Every structure is written in C-alpha cells, then in structure tokens.
Amino acid sequence: xxxNFVSQxxxxxxxxxxxxEMTAILKExxxxxxxxLKMLVYLILGKVAPDFEGIxxxxxxKLIINALSSVSGKSEKEISxxxxxxxxxxxxxxxxxxxxxxxxxASEELTVKYVFNSxxxxxxxxxxxxxxxxxxxxxxxILNGTPDDAMYITRVIAGKLRLGVSDATVLDAxxxxxxxxxxxxxxxxxxxxxxxxxxxxxxxxxxxxxxxxKIGPEPLIPFxxxxxxxxxxxxxxxxxxxxxxAAFEFKYDGLRAGIxxxxxxxxxxxRGNEDTxxxxxxxxxxxxxxxxxESVILDGEAVPYNPETGELxxxxxxxxxxxxxxxxxxxxxxxxxxxxxxxxxxxxxxxLVSKPYLERRRTLESLFEENDSxxxxxxxxxxxxxxxxxxxxxxxEHGCEGVVAKNVGPESVYRAGSRGWLWIKFKRDYQAELWDxxxxxxxxxxxxxxxxxxxxxxxxxxxxxxxxxVFETVCKLGTGFTDEVLFSLPDKFSGLxxxxxxxxxxxxxxxxxxxxxxxxxxxxGAEITxxxxxTCAFSMVKEGSGLALRFPRFNGRWRDDKSPTDATTTNxxxxxxxxxxxxxx
Length: 585
Ligand code: AMP
Fold this sequence. Notes:
This protein has 585 residues and is α+β, with helices and mostly antiparallel strands. 39% of the residues lie in helices and 20% in strands. α2 crosses α10 and α6 packs antiparallel against α9. Residues 225, 228, 249-252, 256, 271, 301, 342, 377, 404, 425 line the site of adenosine monophosphate.
C-alpha cells in the first residue's frame, strides 16, 4: 500500500468527529491493507509497536527543526518562527516540502512498509552518532513523499498525530472489516488481556477466531486491569451483589501494579500498562524469593510505607522513584514500598481468570508468606452493614481511602479492562457529603486576567463518553491551584495546546485555547446539576441539557497514571446525578 493513500485517509479522518464515519474510513483502509495491516494499525495510532514495548522515537521538535533547516536551506530561526505561529511541527514540514517539491521532481513514492521500517529504525537508533542518523532517516522520508505524507510522518515522530482515533475505534473498525459485529465481546476480551492491536488485527484478518477466543493472561504481557464502579452507600452495594455476602477490602491509595514472573524474568506494569519494573528493584528481587512458582501474574497496589510501624504514606512518594537511579539499598531506605495483593490471574501455565473470586484469593494466600514487600489486602466477607461500616472506619484509620466491595458469586471472574458491577468502590468522600472526586480530562483553557494575567484563569474539563468514544465537557475549573501550579499551566499544556477543536470532543463553549485530551486531573465538587452549556450526557436526563459539576476544585492530584479514556465516564457522572437525586428525595 502506498503511504499517500494513508495520508489521504488521514485527511478524511481529520475532517470528521463522527465515530461512525471514522470507523468507516478505517474499515476501508484495513480491507485494502493486506500484508501491511499490522504496520498500518500501529501507524494510525502514531506508533511502531504496542505501548508496553516502551519504544520512543527520541526526536523532539528541536531535532526536527534542525533537519527541516538542512533540507530546506532555511535558517533554524526561520523555521522556529514558522513553528511558533502554528504550534504544529507537522504543518511546517508540509509547507517546507511543498516548496521543495516544486523545485525537484526526483522523489519516489513511499510505501507503508518503507515508512514503517524507517520509523522503526529511527526509534531503534541510539548512542553516539544517533542524532545524525535520525536526521538522515527523517529527511529521506519527508523528501520522498508528498507534502501531506511529510506532515503526518512528522506528527507521528513528534508524538502528535492526534487524529482523535482511540484504540476502541480501531478495534471496532477491525471487527467490522473482518468479523461479525455480533460477537465483538470475545475480541474485546482478547484485547484486554493482550492489548496489542497489531497482533489482534492479524489474527482477525486471518480469521483465527478460535485463537482469539483462547487469548487470556500471558506472563510478561500487561493486561488491562479490572476496574470498580462506585456507589454512595453500603446497602446499595449489597443490593448490587448477587450473593448475600460480598468481600470488602481496604482500598489502598497507591499505584496499581500488575506483577508478572516467568522463570527468572519479572515485569511490573502500571494501571496504564507502562513498564515500571525499574522503579521497583526491591519488589523484583523479593518477588523471586517470595513466589517460587515458575510463572505467576498478580494484581495489587504498591504503597509507600514504614516497615517498622506499618504506617502507610501518601502515594506520591512512590512517584519519587520515577526516573531516579537510586541504588537498591538507598531506595529501600528512602521510600520503602509494600504491595498489597488482591488478585491472581495466572499460575504455572494456567489461567485462573474464570475461577470465582474467593477461589482465586485462596490460591493466592496459599502461595506465599507475608513479608515486608508483599502482603494480602485486608478483607472481610460479610452481609452485615454494621460490621462493614466498622471495617470501613478501620480502613480510614489505616490511611486507606475506603473499601472495595467484591462479588463472591459464581460469576465473579477477573474481568480485564472492565468495570461491570463485580467490584464497587466506596470512599470516605461519600460519607462527608462531598461527592467522590472525578478524574476529568483537560480539553481547553481560558486566558487569565488581573492577578492571573499571563497564565490560564480556568481550564475546561471533560468526562469520557465510552459509548460514543468522545469527550464531553462537565465544568470550568478555576479553583484549587497553588500559585506555583497556576503559573506552570501554560508550560504544562504547551505541547497539547492547539487552535482547533480536537476531533474527539463534543463542546458548546469556545475556550481561548483548545487542549488535546491527554491530561487527567482529580477534581472534587459539591454536586452534579443540569446545565445548558455542558455536553456531558446531553439530553439524557432532560432535553437540551447536559450535566455539570458544581463548585469544582482541583485537589492537587494529577492522575498521570490514567490515560484520558480511563477518566470518569459520562455514564458514571449520570449515575452520580441519579444517586444524588434519589438521596435528596
Ligand atoms: P479509582 O482509582 O478511584 O478508580 O479506584 C480504583 C483503584 O483502587 C484500583 O485501580 C486500584 O489501583 C485501587 N485499589 C486499592 N485497593 C484495592 C483493592 N483492595 N481492590 C481493588 N483495587 C484496589
């Protein structure tokens, strides 16, 4: 397939915000792709490998500008000026190659395979001399294609393709292209246990449906973690559970950790499937001593703590480990971490995900002795609201956020990537009559005035509508910022700011700056109200109205562990609105 065919389709994608149209365009591309399918799928997502391989191009705007200067003969200053005007290094590359093209007609046409392999080579080039090598691979690519090709290739390398196409849309289009839509759920399950769309795409194209249905947890491959719904009181929670009883567990406030062991190899993944193994050398070492199994996959929460007293510390202390090269002893002393385990997905070659919850938990308990690095999450199985209330208070006293209730009936499988009602969280905020925090995505910003001149005065925040795969606005946020945070906002969002509305955003308001949905912030507020201007759950409660969060305030917590599609969903906001209305009756 010629890469220019892809660029043309990217132009079409760029012009629509309708998911159905996007899916149709992608489907058409996939049906034409043939042996290029896997490469094409990665390119559409702006990548050359699944996220969990952690491959990066290592070529920022500065290097791209250098290269554009060399190929065009224009000075770096001139090109930086063009970049400053548009904020999009891709369109600078397009404009420069368009002029260049008129002068030389020597270019060949690029194929998808050639572009993919060159990009892969560019990413793999490192060490001494790599800058020159990267520049030369890049220049070759942009000079041999059309100006639009140059634009999209540049955006991929800069990490700014931003077509508004999510993994879910790609998956939909793949299913439509190669499979019956009616059985989408088995493909979704496969993807949730093996989140590599290139891999799934090839299986679908080759009609290897049996193989897809067999995909389950695999050691060293991250899985999409199981998630919890939320409810504001214990009676409602018990009502949702199928059995009479449910398991209630401490809800630890740390970082989710999917822990994999295969022989001597260990990998730890975050909630967003980022490889965080290097942050936890102590956990890696102790895992090998604690779990003698040949292969195992565990799910738990890593929490900083004091091993002498058992006291739990704020989760931010785990983040201090990020990017720092402590040696093991120093790290153990400065920020000791314990993992509270609550699930097991795989043991010695066998998947356990379809076993009921208590059976999985018993297997896990029998597998290891608690120590400084690994403990079981505290749990009680009960249907007695009094006992559960006490357990909840106990959890708060121990520095936890509340409890997670877990279904213990025969249907209580491990459901990767999904909320369902098998797990339900119940937090302290519900009790204090303040609503639980929402994890909202920044999609726009308004210039500040007066004391806030020079920074943003407010941010526009959105929830994620999973069914439509779009973001919908919920509130304008201007409270809860320290001065330091406030004045760092323009810098923080500089790479995401753009002058046109992101394609995957439904919005009635006109912020001064649009922000591509990527950053998630934790926001508290007073209540959910009907709103004529916000698009969250628009016309779902009342014709012509959406839902809004009243008195929103940033609580200081950036949810860098959540991708935008992990944000609070529109459905959750709707549930919160309904629960609140029934409470007020
Ligand atoms: P939230 O981040 O508010 O959506 O709450 C869900 C998160 O709570 C999970 O992703 C886990 O990281 C965390 N968590 C803490 N303790 C538990 C537990 N016992 N069971 C399940 N999740 C837990």
